Amino acid sequence: MMAWAMVRHRFASFAGTFVAIMLGVAVVAGTTTLYLSSRPQPPERYRASPVMVQAPSVGTNDFGEPEIRSWTATELTEISARLRQDPRITGVIPDPFFYVQRQGADDDGTATLAGHGWSSAALGGYHLTGGRPPQRPGEVVTGTGGPPGSTVAVLTAAGPESWTITGTTDGPGYYVTDTDALGRASGVRVIGLTVDGDHRSVTDAAQSLIGAFGTVRAGPDRAALEPVSVTRIRWIGAQLLIAMVTLGAFATVFVVASTCALTAGQRQRELGLLRAAGATPGQVRRLMYAETAPIAVLAGLLGAPLGAGVAPLLAGPMVDLGLEPPGFAATWQPAAVGGAVLVGLVVALAGAGVAARRASRVAPLAALRDAAAEIRPMTRTRWALGLLSAAAGAALLAAMPTMATQSKTTAGMGAAMLLLTAAALLAPVAIGPLVRFATGPWRGSATAMVVREGTLTGVRRVASTAAPVLLTVGMTVLLTGMVATIEQASGIDATADIPAATVLAPDGTPGLGDAAVRTQPGTARLDTRVLIQRGSTGTGEYAAGVAGAPVTLTPEAAERLGASTGEAITLRWADGEVSTVAVRKIDADADAPVVLPRELVRRHDPDALTRMVMLSGDPQPAAGARALSARDYVQEQIDEEGQLVDLFLWVLIALTAGYTAIAVSNTLLMATAARRPEFRALRLAGAGIGQVLRVTTSEALLSAGVGALLGGAVGALSLTGVRAAVEDELGQDVALVIPWGAALGVTALCAVLAVTATALPVLRRPALAR
């Protein structure tokens, strides 16, 4: 009862805690809703086929995903015959898919999966809505493109083609004859079954019939059939969501801890009175927890529905940004809402823990103290931790020149974190000189004198306000500067790897078809993936088909495979066929981990596309292709990859800045409210309300400025270590990019919030105006 009464009568003191928890719970609820909605799903094109057969797995790739091989034509025939032995299986339908895209339309990420055989339309429950099925090559059924009898111009791995539309369907994609689809696809890895009977018993019977030739999947287990390209997109989105949840929880703990610590400091006399009245340290701790718990529950009950309600609005932008596959939608997830409320409560109690222990140590004699000055701005523990962090950060920066190249960037980041921590801990030491320097030019001003003495008297208060600004500005400078510096250096390095001055690149397509490549003067690489057999398992490797090239491995691939020059390796191609080739060369500058003759790759992978052509002459016009300089091509690749990095970066910075805003606003709001007697004394001494506002505004700007200055200095110092690492790795000079715009923007935001937070308590108290 006492705790709830204190919360009701001092709710303003808990406003920062309430907002921080509500925001944290909203972030957790929203991101968890998106994450749970983004779990792998059975592909839509298999919705009418409850039982599916997947080709065998021969190992796992670098992402821990199974490496699924294709069936050979002989295996496919044998498996189909075995499955038809069960009278309950009414249809055995292979699903070969291939790249097809309408000319003039940009790829939305689905073109590589858009082509199918007509029989597979039944797996999705799609039907003819007009016309007839395709019967010969060059005929197609599609839901887009025109009425039966018209033609549609498309791009395929072979090049531009004109198909006759023989029918229309209610499903997405392009459907050609089954034979044509088999000839265009990179093998068959999935067979759909239509069944008449109990799905579970049919599943068990089908698995017995095919044995080791594949895995039978039914119901939700069909999610394993989701294409790898789609799963990778989900994985990228999941990383951002996990980072947001982690940062949200951490920042909530930080804000709650700082708020509770400030509250405990302002309530020294009250807590001392409780101790003098007989309250034990345990009772004081339980009081702090009891005050935080109802705030956390109330904030959670408001924040969780808010986050879950916003999640569906973010689904579209996430698809547009490539963080989720096309068709993704956020659905209601009760576990996300309930879990977020529980997380908010646990996190809030964890944040209150440090303050609760400190409050329990308040002596009964504290009830008799009424001094505003801080006797010890720096405790021994704070000194020790600050100096140790500074020494460790400086040591890492000093040792970077002697470290291995691959360790330097990590060391630079570690040094930055240690130095930022040291700056936050040692901020009270720097505040005095900085305040005296900043107020020096106005030494004769009464306002400047009050500001100077007020900040020097309340060093801890200023440090608590400056710390979140310091960390935010420092991290903003470091992260944005590091990304910009590395991107600039990567562009220089990648351009040097492309000997051609001009390249032919895809234009709104996932790659170049053979027709576009065939007429170009220069060298092209056909991208595919092969499984290199070792006993009963295989290792997936990215391979490039280059005209006239010998079989070549990079040193890393050769080490993984245990292969050497002259040794034979066994390849399982995209179409499932197996052959043996001899390694002719090991080259660190090879175009891919495995380089193979182009004609051999094309024979086994009719759906492979060319990433680019390094031109040695004038480019020839081709559909879905464009010519550009090597530098522009590299920059586009960097920009494409950098978009995701920048997105991650700015989302995390925005979250950090948001929590910093809460911390700064709450700290100053509470601190200014607690200083009402001081401001009333100023008014009685003759100061006008405008002068009081100038004092509070100046103090707020000083706090934000000190934090921004220290944070920017540490961030810039750490960036020099990162640049040194990049220069050593590339063997050339790299310009240091300081993100002035981002740093000034974050600083300005913190300054505006600080000024507002200090002005509100002054303007809301009529007593101060008299």
Automatic annotation (TrEMBL):
Domain named ABC3 transporter permease C-terminal: residues: 243-362, 651-764
Keywords assigned by UniProt, alphabetized: Cell membrane, Membrane, Transmembrane, Transmembrane helix
Primary location: membrane
Residue ranges that the Swiss-Prot or TrEMBL entry lists as coiled coil: none
GO molecular function: transmembrane transporter activity
InterPro entries attached to this UniProt entry: ABC3_permease_C, Macrolide_Exporter_MacB
Subcellular location: Cell membrane
Listed transmembrane segments: none
Keyword Membrane carried by entry: yes
Entries under Pfam families matching the protein: FtsX
Family: Belongs to the ABC-4 integral membrane protein family.
Record's protein name: Putative ABC transport system permease protein
Origin species: Actinoplanes teichomyceticus
